[in-house]
Amino acid sequence: MKASLEELERCVKKLGMKGILLYTNLAGRFADEPEFRPLFAHAVEYDIPILLHPAKPITSDIVKDYEMISSLGNMFDDTIALNRILLSGILDQYPKLKLICPHLGGTLPFIIGRIDHQVNVLKRGPKYLTKAPSEYLKQVYLDIVSPLPQAMRFAWELMGPDHLIYASDHPWVDPKLILDGLRSLSLPKADEEKILGGNAENCSGSDPDLDCRRLYDYGPRISLAYAATPRWQEARKPAGTPSPQHRSAHPLRREGRHLA
What is the pTM assigned to this prediction? Predict the structure, then answer.
Protein backbone atom coordinates (compact mmCIF):
# COMPACT_ATOMS: atom_id res chain seq x y z
CA MET A 1 0.00 0.00 0.00
CA LYS A 2 2.90 2.35 0.69
CA ALA A 3 4.01 2.23 -2.95
CA SER A 4 0.44 2.84 -4.12
CA LEU A 5 0.11 5.94 -1.97
CA GLU A 6 3.45 7.25 -3.19
CA GLU A 7 2.32 6.76 -6.78
CA LEU A 8 -0.99 8.48 -6.03
CA GLU A 9 0.86 11.47 -4.60
CA ARG A 10 3.07 11.63 -7.71
CA CYS A 11 0.09 11.37 -10.04
CA VAL A 12 -1.90 14.07 -8.28
CA LYS A 13 0.83 16.55 -7.36
CA LYS A 14 3.15 16.18 -10.36
CA LEU A 15 0.95 14.93 -13.19
CA GLY A 16 -2.24 16.72 -12.25
CA MET A 17 -4.48 13.68 -12.32
CA LYS A 18 -7.97 14.36 -11.10
CA GLY A 19 -9.33 11.13 -9.63
CA ILE A 20 -8.83 7.48 -8.78
CA LEU A 21 -10.13 4.51 -10.73
CA LEU A 22 -10.59 1.80 -8.10
CA TYR A 23 -11.58 -1.70 -9.10
CA THR A 24 -14.56 -3.22 -7.34
CA ASN A 25 -12.39 -6.14 -6.31
CA LEU A 26 -8.63 -6.26 -6.02
CA ALA A 27 -7.67 -9.78 -7.03
CA GLY A 28 -10.57 -11.07 -4.96
CA ARG A 29 -10.15 -8.64 -2.07
CA PHE A 30 -12.17 -5.50 -1.40
CA ALA A 31 -11.19 -1.89 -0.89
CA ASP A 32 -12.99 -1.60 2.45
CA GLU A 33 -10.45 -3.97 4.03
CA PRO A 34 -8.23 -2.17 6.58
CA GLU A 35 -5.08 -2.47 4.46
CA PHE A 36 -6.58 -0.32 1.71
CA ARG A 37 -8.32 2.33 3.81
CA PRO A 38 -5.50 4.88 3.64
CA LEU A 39 -6.50 5.33 0.01
CA PHE A 40 -9.78 6.89 1.10
CA ALA A 41 -8.00 9.22 3.52
CA HIS A 42 -5.71 10.44 0.75
CA ALA A 43 -8.61 10.93 -1.66
CA VAL A 44 -10.24 13.22 0.89
CA GLU A 45 -6.97 15.03 1.55
CA TYR A 46 -6.41 15.66 -2.18
CA ASP A 47 -10.10 16.46 -2.75
CA ILE A 48 -10.39 14.00 -5.63
CA PRO A 49 -13.15 11.49 -6.38
CA ILE A 50 -12.84 7.72 -6.35
CA LEU A 51 -14.61 5.86 -9.12
CA LEU A 52 -15.44 2.23 -8.45
CA HIS A 53 -15.46 0.08 -11.57
CA PRO A 54 -15.51 -3.66 -12.26
CA ALA A 55 -12.54 -5.42 -13.82
CA LYS A 56 -12.84 -9.19 -13.49
CA PRO A 57 -15.93 -9.84 -11.35
CA ILE A 58 -15.59 -12.28 -8.48
CA THR A 59 -18.58 -14.12 -9.93
CA SER A 60 -16.93 -14.60 -13.34
CA ASP A 61 -16.88 -18.38 -13.16
CA ILE A 62 -20.55 -18.45 -12.21
CA VAL A 63 -21.79 -16.04 -14.89
CA LYS A 64 -19.46 -16.90 -17.79
CA ASP A 65 -22.10 -19.09 -19.46
CA TYR A 66 -24.36 -17.22 -21.89
CA GLU A 67 -21.86 -14.29 -21.82
CA MET A 68 -23.35 -12.88 -18.60
CA ILE A 69 -20.12 -11.43 -17.19
CA SER A 70 -20.91 -7.92 -18.35
CA SER A 71 -24.67 -8.04 -17.93
CA LEU A 72 -24.69 -9.65 -14.47
CA GLY A 73 -21.13 -10.13 -13.20
CA ASN A 74 -20.20 -6.45 -13.38
CA MET A 75 -23.47 -5.43 -11.75
CA PHE A 76 -22.92 -7.88 -8.89
CA ASP A 77 -19.40 -6.55 -8.38
CA ASP A 78 -20.71 -2.97 -8.21
CA THR A 79 -23.31 -4.07 -5.70
CA ILE A 80 -21.03 -6.07 -3.43
CA ALA A 81 -18.17 -3.56 -3.40
CA LEU A 82 -20.43 -0.57 -2.79
CA ASN A 83 -22.46 -2.27 -0.08
CA ARG A 84 -19.29 -3.34 1.72
CA ILE A 85 -18.17 0.30 1.76
CA LEU A 86 -21.55 1.41 3.12
CA LEU A 87 -21.46 -1.17 5.90
CA SER A 88 -17.79 -0.68 6.72
CA GLY A 89 -18.19 2.73 8.37
CA ILE A 90 -15.89 4.37 5.82
CA LEU A 91 -18.47 7.06 5.04
CA ASP A 92 -18.66 7.93 8.74
CA GLN A 93 -14.88 8.00 8.97
CA TYR A 94 -14.58 10.10 5.80
CA PRO A 95 -17.87 11.97 5.36
CA LYS A 96 -16.33 14.24 2.70
CA LEU A 97 -15.32 11.29 0.52
CA LYS A 98 -16.46 11.70 -3.09
CA LEU A 99 -17.31 8.18 -4.21
CA ILE A 100 -18.79 7.39 -7.62
CA CYS A 101 -20.33 4.05 -8.56
CA PRO A 102 -21.27 3.31 -12.18
CA HIS A 103 -24.29 1.56 -13.68
CA LEU A 104 -26.74 3.20 -11.25
CA GLY A 105 -25.01 1.37 -8.40
CA GLY A 106 -25.54 -2.09 -9.85
CA THR A 107 -28.52 -3.67 -8.09
CA LEU A 108 -27.96 -1.92 -4.76
CA PRO A 109 -30.53 0.89 -5.05
CA PHE A 110 -33.21 -1.69 -5.84
CA ILE A 111 -32.47 -3.85 -2.76
CA ILE A 112 -31.33 -1.19 -0.30
CA GLY A 113 -34.66 -1.43 1.54
CA ARG A 114 -33.96 -5.07 2.30
CA ILE A 115 -30.48 -4.18 3.54
CA ASP A 116 -31.95 -1.47 5.79
CA HIS A 117 -34.35 -4.04 7.23
CA GLN A 118 -31.66 -6.65 7.76
CA VAL A 119 -29.34 -4.19 9.52
CA ASN A 120 -31.79 -2.01 11.44
CA VAL A 121 -34.65 -4.37 12.26
CA LEU A 122 -33.20 -7.88 12.25
CA LYS A 123 -29.82 -6.64 13.56
CA ARG A 124 -27.93 -8.66 10.96
CA GLY A 125 -25.00 -6.42 10.29
CA PRO A 126 -22.51 -4.07 11.91
CA LYS A 127 -23.58 -2.40 15.14
CA TYR A 128 -21.42 0.71 14.78
CA LEU A 129 -23.30 2.42 11.95
CA THR A 130 -24.81 5.79 12.82
CA LYS A 131 -27.62 5.68 10.23
CA ALA A 132 -29.42 3.38 7.85
CA PRO A 133 -27.47 1.95 4.89
CA SER A 134 -29.84 3.78 2.54
CA GLU A 135 -28.71 7.08 4.05
CA TYR A 136 -25.07 6.24 3.39
CA LEU A 137 -26.02 5.34 -0.17
CA LYS A 138 -27.28 8.89 -0.64
CA GLN A 139 -23.75 10.16 0.08
CA VAL A 140 -22.51 8.33 -3.02
CA TYR A 141 -22.65 9.57 -6.61
CA LEU A 142 -24.15 7.16 -9.14
CA ASP A 143 -23.69 7.46 -12.85
CA ILE A 144 -26.81 6.91 -14.91
CA VAL A 145 -25.48 4.35 -17.38
CA SER A 146 -28.54 2.22 -18.04
CA PRO A 147 -30.51 1.68 -21.24
CA LEU A 148 -33.70 1.68 -19.14
CA PRO A 149 -35.15 5.14 -18.43
CA GLN A 150 -37.36 3.71 -15.68
CA ALA A 151 -34.22 2.71 -13.78
CA MET A 152 -32.89 6.26 -14.12
CA ARG A 153 -36.17 7.61 -12.77
CA PHE A 154 -36.07 5.27 -9.78
CA ALA A 155 -32.52 6.40 -8.99
CA TRP A 156 -33.61 10.04 -9.27
CA GLU A 157 -36.53 9.42 -6.92
CA LEU A 158 -34.35 7.50 -4.43
CA MET A 159 -31.17 9.57 -4.52
CA GLY A 160 -32.49 12.99 -5.45
CA PRO A 161 -30.98 15.07 -8.25
CA ASP A 162 -27.72 16.02 -6.52
CA HIS A 163 -25.92 12.66 -6.65
CA LEU A 164 -26.53 11.43 -10.21
CA ILE A 165 -23.97 11.93 -12.96
CA TYR A 166 -24.32 11.49 -16.69
CA ALA A 167 -21.84 9.08 -18.29
CA SER A 168 -21.90 7.22 -21.57
CA ASP A 169 -19.98 3.95 -21.06
CA HIS A 170 -18.47 4.75 -24.46
CA PRO A 171 -17.52 2.82 -26.60
CA TRP A 172 -19.68 -0.03 -25.33
CA VAL A 173 -22.84 2.10 -25.25
CA ASP A 174 -23.88 4.86 -27.62
CA PRO A 175 -23.83 8.08 -25.54
CA LYS A 176 -27.03 9.17 -27.27
CA LEU A 177 -28.87 6.18 -25.80
CA ILE A 178 -28.15 7.37 -22.26
CA LEU A 179 -28.84 11.01 -23.05
CA ASP A 180 -32.11 10.24 -24.81
CA GLY A 181 -33.15 8.03 -21.89
CA LEU A 182 -32.52 10.84 -19.43
CA ARG A 183 -34.34 13.43 -21.48
CA SER A 184 -37.31 11.13 -21.97
CA LEU A 185 -37.99 11.48 -18.24
CA SER A 186 -38.83 15.18 -18.60
CA LEU A 187 -37.19 15.97 -15.28
CA PRO A 188 -37.16 19.55 -14.01
CA LYS A 189 -34.66 21.59 -16.01
CA ALA A 190 -32.55 22.34 -12.95
CA ASP A 191 -32.30 18.64 -12.07
CA GLU A 192 -31.33 17.67 -15.61
CA GLU A 193 -28.58 20.29 -15.68
CA LYS A 194 -27.20 18.99 -12.38
CA ILE A 195 -27.07 15.47 -13.79
CA LEU A 196 -25.52 16.62 -17.07
CA GLY A 197 -22.80 18.74 -15.50
CA GLY A 198 -23.34 20.43 -12.19
CA ASN A 199 -22.90 17.35 -10.03
CA ALA A 200 -19.71 16.37 -11.83
CA GLU A 201 -18.38 19.83 -11.15
CA ASN A 202 -19.25 19.53 -7.47
CA CYS A 203 -17.41 16.24 -7.04
CA SER A 204 -14.40 17.19 -9.16
CA GLY A 205 -12.65 19.34 -6.59
CA SER A 206 -11.79 23.00 -6.84
CA ASP A 207 -9.07 22.95 -9.53
CA PRO A 208 -9.78 26.01 -11.72
CA ASP A 209 -7.91 24.42 -14.64
CA LEU A 210 -10.20 21.38 -14.79
CA ASP A 211 -13.10 21.73 -17.19
CA CYS A 212 -15.60 20.03 -14.93
CA ARG A 213 -18.38 20.09 -17.49
CA ARG A 214 -16.71 17.17 -19.21
CA LEU A 215 -18.35 14.49 -17.22
CA TYR A 216 -16.99 11.25 -15.85
CA ASP A 217 -16.89 8.30 -18.13
CA TYR A 218 -14.71 5.46 -16.97
CA GLY A 219 -12.78 2.29 -17.48
CA PRO A 220 -9.83 1.76 -19.82
CA ARG A 221 -11.23 4.40 -22.15
CA ILE A 222 -10.69 7.17 -19.57
CA SER A 223 -12.79 9.56 -21.62
CA LEU A 224 -14.80 12.40 -20.18
CA ALA A 225 -18.06 12.94 -22.00
CA TYR A 226 -19.05 16.39 -23.08
CA ALA A 227 -21.92 17.95 -21.22
CA ALA A 228 -24.99 17.97 -23.39
CA THR A 229 -26.71 21.10 -22.15
CA PRO A 230 -26.99 23.70 -24.93
CA ARG A 231 -26.26 26.46 -22.42
CA TRP A 232 -22.93 24.84 -21.54
CA GLN A 233 -22.04 24.11 -25.15
CA GLU A 234 -22.56 27.71 -26.16
CA ALA A 235 -20.94 29.19 -23.06
CA ARG A 236 -17.86 26.97 -22.93
CA LYS A 237 -16.70 26.17 -26.46
CA PRO A 238 -14.31 28.63 -28.15
CA ALA A 239 -15.39 30.27 -31.38
CA GLY A 240 -15.04 27.93 -34.31
CA THR A 241 -14.94 24.80 -32.14
CA PRO A 242 -16.57 21.85 -33.92
CA SER A 243 -19.56 20.21 -32.29
CA PRO A 244 -18.81 17.39 -29.80
CA GLN A 245 -19.83 14.63 -32.21
CA HIS A 246 -17.06 15.74 -34.56
CA ARG A 247 -14.36 15.91 -31.90
CA SER A 248 -12.28 13.16 -30.40
CA ALA A 249 -14.22 10.90 -28.08
CA HIS A 250 -11.22 11.06 -25.74
CA PRO A 251 -10.67 14.78 -25.04
CA LEU A 252 -8.41 14.29 -22.03
CA ARG A 253 -6.35 11.64 -23.77
CA ARG A 254 -5.95 14.00 -26.70
CA GLU A 255 -4.86 16.81 -24.39
CA GLY A 256 -2.51 14.57 -22.43
CA ARG A 257 -4.60 14.82 -19.26
CA HIS A 258 -5.92 11.57 -17.85
CA LEU A 259 -8.23 10.76 -14.99
CA ALA A 260 -6.33 8.31 -12.83
Answer: 0.80
